[in-house]
């Protein structure tokens, strides 16, 4: 049980000891960096979105005296190039990219694969594709890429909790197209008119930022002022959801749990997560009871919330000793 009176801070800020660009296709190069202990336990950090990119605080979720932390910007995100590129940008491309990066860095097996939100989806899909390459997993804000989850957040569900902000989210979309907001947003986010793209991207990104924490995080909201960041974030995210993330069926992750049942896993879930509601974490836990489920009673979706952060640190510390 987490002691809510003694919540931990992140590990100190640190700079990468290595970084670079890896060419993964004719058009895509992905940015990666390594932090912490050069000969430490390899840990892979997979960001959310998709399209979110990695940041300084992501490095600080791992003990730098124990872990060799590998972080990457997925195709089109962060420092990867071309920015916001949708061509050849699918879930299976990302799975292959992780393998190419692992091979490039000479890592035989990941000591920990860590992912939150979309990062939890990609972590699960990667582990199910390459179960022999993963020793343990830490997952936050579970997203199983099911249609009901996408409908909840982008069509009808979360808007009942945040009707004022949902009204602003819907605003760029003509009334006649509001029956399918994902499709309507995709049309605008792929427009040749930059003004249309940026307006849609800002509304899309703002909706996610204002709902990601139990209490509004001004720092997260400030990111939506960056025209380039909102385009990377919104375009790629909508691209994936508009295409059902290229999974053979929406229950793909749950249907393939037996492939990873032997892998130790810690799940951290905010009770009041509106972006990825706890129904998904609960469905995963019921299908995979061996995975440890930790519910933070006073948190939403963000890894920056104190209770979630503390449990994530507790989990990476635990696997660092295994």
Number of continuous helical runs: 12
Main sheet characteristics: 8 strands, mixed
Helix content range: 25-40%
The end-to-end span amounts to 20 Å
Radius of gyration: 18 Å
Spell out the helices and strands N to C.
EEEHEHEHEHHHHHHHEHEH
Q: Give me the secondary-structure category.
A: alpha/beta
The shape is globular
In spatial order, strands of the major sheet run 1-2-4-3-5-6-7-8
How big a fraction of the residues is strand?
5-15%
How would you describe what is shown here?
This protein is α/β, with parallel strands linked by helices. The chain has an 8-stranded mixed β-sheet with strand order 1-2-4-3-5-6-7-8, with helices on both faces. The longest helix has 18 residues.
Question: What labels describe this entry?
Answer:
globular
Secondary structure blueprint with pairings:
Layout: E1 18-23, E2 29-36, E3 41-46, H1 56-59, E4 67-72, H2 91-104, E5 112-116, H3 118-129, E6 137-140, H4 147-154, H5 163-170, H6 181-189, H7 194-211, H8 218-222, H9 227-242, H10 252-255, E7 265-270, H11 278-287, E8 292-296, H12 306-320
Parallel strand pairs: 3-4, 3-5, 5-6, 6-7, 7-8
Antiparallel strand pairs: 1-2, 2-4
Short summary of the structure?
By secondary structure, the chain is an alpha/beta fold. Helices cover 38% and strands 14% of the residues.
